[in-house]
């Protein structure tokens, strides 16, 4: 006789609650492991290529020992001539005080023999083929003084860039206007400008006389004589009472050239004053003698 299994007994209920869910999960896990997804595409793995910058940074660089000449193409290259330990030549020729070559001498020994607080070995010419480099021993104080003079000259040249100024005068100019123009002319000259003075008849003005024209020209020249270092750069062009040009210049006030010209100007003025005083004294003595004889 066949026994019918009860589907709703306690054993079946417990199996369905505690065991059956884990069996389903295990079955699904085995099924997913057997399946190979056809949609996944793996990217090929290529070997990493190091960047050029990193590669360059790994290259070992050698640093020169001593004061060798730097690479002129580098940003930190020294400007100017090489001095002392910067000179890498083993032997050099030396320019003596008479500007004659002596040597060759051992560079290291020459540098070590110097009083480096007062002297410097400076290269004036690099070695060319078999010819040694040429150097000169320079006094540092004299070098600094020369550099100061060069800097002063450079500043003076910058001040006296010789900018041109034009000044126009009427032959029949009024005294008040003439005074203003002469003051302007003196200012231009003291600033070191080249001044071109144009003398011409102003439209609508009266015609000046020849004496007035000559007086005006002489007045301009008197101003030049009263301004240290002032002069005419070339002869006037043109004709009085028509159109005439005068070309004037002077050193900058306070410059070395101006100071020298001012000293010469003051010396001449003192000599002139002394001569006039002596002449006046002679005239006074002469007049006194004449009066005594008359009495």
TrEMBL record:
**Which keywords does this Swiss-Prot/TrEMBL entry list?**
Coiled coil, Initiation factor, Protein biosynthesis
Look up the domain of life of the source: Eukaryota
One GO CC term, this protein: mitochondrion
One function term, GO molecular function aspect: translation initiation factor activity
List the residue ranges of the region (Disordered): 63-86
Query: Coiled-coil segments, which residues?
Result: 139-170
Question: Could you provide one GO biological process annotation from this protein's UniProt record?
Answer: mitochondrial translational initiation
Which InterPro entries does the UniProt entry name for this protein?
T_IF-3_C_sf, Translation_initiation_fac_3
Instruction: Check the record and name the PANTHER family matching this protein.
Output: TRANSLATION INITIATION FACTOR IF-3 (PTHR10938), TRANSLATION INITIATION FACTOR IF-3, MITOCHONDRIAL (PTHR10938:SF0)
Family membership noted in the UniProt record = Belongs to the IF-3 family.
Mind telling me what this protein is named? Translation initiation factor
List the source organism: Colletotrichum karsti
């Amino acid at each position: 006789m066949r026994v019918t299994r009860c589907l709703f007994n306690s054993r079946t209920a417990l199996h369905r609650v505690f065991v059956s869910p884990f069996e389903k999960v295990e079955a699904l896990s085995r099924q997913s492991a057997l399946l190979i997804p056809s949609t996944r595409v793996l990217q090929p793995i290529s070997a990493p290529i190091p960047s050029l910058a990193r590669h360059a940074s790994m290259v070992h660089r050698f640093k020169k020992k001593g004061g060798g000449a730097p690479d002129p193409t580098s940003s930190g290259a020294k400007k100017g001539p090489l001095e002392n330990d910067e000179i890498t030549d083993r032997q050099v020729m030396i320019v003596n005080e008479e500007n004659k070559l002596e040597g060759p001498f051992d560079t290291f020994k020459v540098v070590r023999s110097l009083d480096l607080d007062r002297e410097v070995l400076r290269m004036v010419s690099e070695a060319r083929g078999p010819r040694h480099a040429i150097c000169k021993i320079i006094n540092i104080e004299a070098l600094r003084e020369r550099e100061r003079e060069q800097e002063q000259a450079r500043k003076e040249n910058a001040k006296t860039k010789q900018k041109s100024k034009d000044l126009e005068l009427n032959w029949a100019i009024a005294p008040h206007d003439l005074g203003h123009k002469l003051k302007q002319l003196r200012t231009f000259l003291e600033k070191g400008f080249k001044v071109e003075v144009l003398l011409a008849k102003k439209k609508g003005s009266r015609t000046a006389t020849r004496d007035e024209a000559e007086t005006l020209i002489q007045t301009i020249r008197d101003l030049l004589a009263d301004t240290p270092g002032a002069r005419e750069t070339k002869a006037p062009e043109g004709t009085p009472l028509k159109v005439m040009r005068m070309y004037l210049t002077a050193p900058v006030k306070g410059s070395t050239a101006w100071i020298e010209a001012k000293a010469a100007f003051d010396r001449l003025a003192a000599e002139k004053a002394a001569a006039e005083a002596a002449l006046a004294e002679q005239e006074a003595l002469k007049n006194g003698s004449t009066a005594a004889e008359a009495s």
